[in-house]
Amino acid sequence: MVAGLETDEQSARRLADLVTESFAADEVAVSLVGNGPFAGQGRSPQRRGSGAWRVNVYCRAGADIRIIRELAAVAGGAAMAKALAFERLTAKDWVGLSLTGLKPVAAGRFVVHGAHDRGSVPPNRIGIEIEAALAFGTGHHGTTRGCLLALDSMCKSMRGGSAAPRILDLGTGSGVLAIAAARALHARVLATDIDAVAVRAARDNARRNRAGRLVEVVKSDGLAAPGIRRHAPFDLVFANILLGPLQRLAAPLAKIVTPGGHVVLSGLLTAQANAALAAYGAFRLERRIMLDGWATLVLRCPSRTSIARRHDDP
Question: How far apart are alpha carbons 241 and 276 in whole angstroms?
Fold first, then answer.
C-alpha cells in the first residue's frame, strides 16, 4: 500500500518527519521528491516552501493507514489529510519503469544508464548499465547518487594501498554500488540483500558490467551471512538501507571495519542524519552529502593510533 499526495515543501517535509517518527523503520518507507526550482539537482529550492513536492508513504501489510491520514492533518490541516490518496501496490518492474524516459545520470566518474543509452557514456567515465528488474537502485535516486559520489572521492586514496581493499555492500539492490566499487578499485566486493529477487538482479547486473568475477552476491539479513564473517574485516562498507536497520547494525558493524576504514550510510532523510550519527558514535564523520532531501554520511573508523591516544588522555 502507498499513500501519496502533492503539497508544498514545508508540509511535505513535516509529514515525512511525522511518519518516520511514528512508525517503526520496517513498517514504512518514505519517498520525498521536489518539483520546485532546482529540484533534482542536489541544491535547495530557491524559496523554501515553493513548488509542488510529492511525498509517498509505502506501508507494509498490517500498518495502520488511519494514522497516516491523522499525521497528514497534523502536518497540513484537514485539506491535506483529505487529499492523501491510498493505492494498493502490485509487483512491477520498478527499475524498468524508472529508466523509461530517463537520461544517464552522472556521479563523479560514474555514469549509470540503461541499455538504450549504452553508446552515450564518455570514454573517460565508468559506465554502469542497469537492466530492468524488480530491484531498487538505478543511480537516479539521491541515496544511490550520494553513495557513488562518496566512492568517487575515496577512490584515489584507496587505490594507493599495497593490497586491494575489502568491500561490503549491505542491501545491494540492483548491485550498482558493488559494481562501481569493483570496477573503480579493481577489488572484490561482497554484496548482500535480504530479497532473493534483488540478489538475482545484482548477479545479472554484475555479469553484464564485466564485474561478475569480482562481485559475490549472497542473500542475507543484516550481517548474518557466513561470508561476511569469513571476509571481515572490511576497509569500506556501504549501507544504503533505512534508519532503523542502520541503528541496529551500528554496534556489529563497528566490529568488522578495519581501523581507518570507512562506512558510507544512506537511505536517510536529511532530518534523520543526526539520529544515525548518534548510533555511530564509535566513528568519525568525514562528510555529509545532501541530495534531493536525502542524506549520505561518510564515516571513518578511528585508527589504532588515535584509539590508543584517546585511552591515554587523562
Answer: 12
Least confident span in 50-64, 89-103, 254-268: 89-103
Write b or e for each residue in 176-212: b if 16 or more Cβ atoms lie within 10 A of its Cβ, otherwise e.
bbbbbbbbbbebbbbbbbebeebbbbbbbbbebbebb
Mean pLDDT of 154-166: 81
Q: Which helix (H) or strand (E) holds 174?
A: none
Which of 237, 288, 297, 300 shows the shortest CA–CA distance to 267?
297
* Spatial distance between the Cα atoms of 266 and 106, rounded to a whole number of angstroms: 18
Residue linked to cell 543509452: 117
Q: What percent of the chain has pLDDT over 90?
A: 44
Beta bridge partners of 192: 170, 218
* SS3 state of residue 313: coil
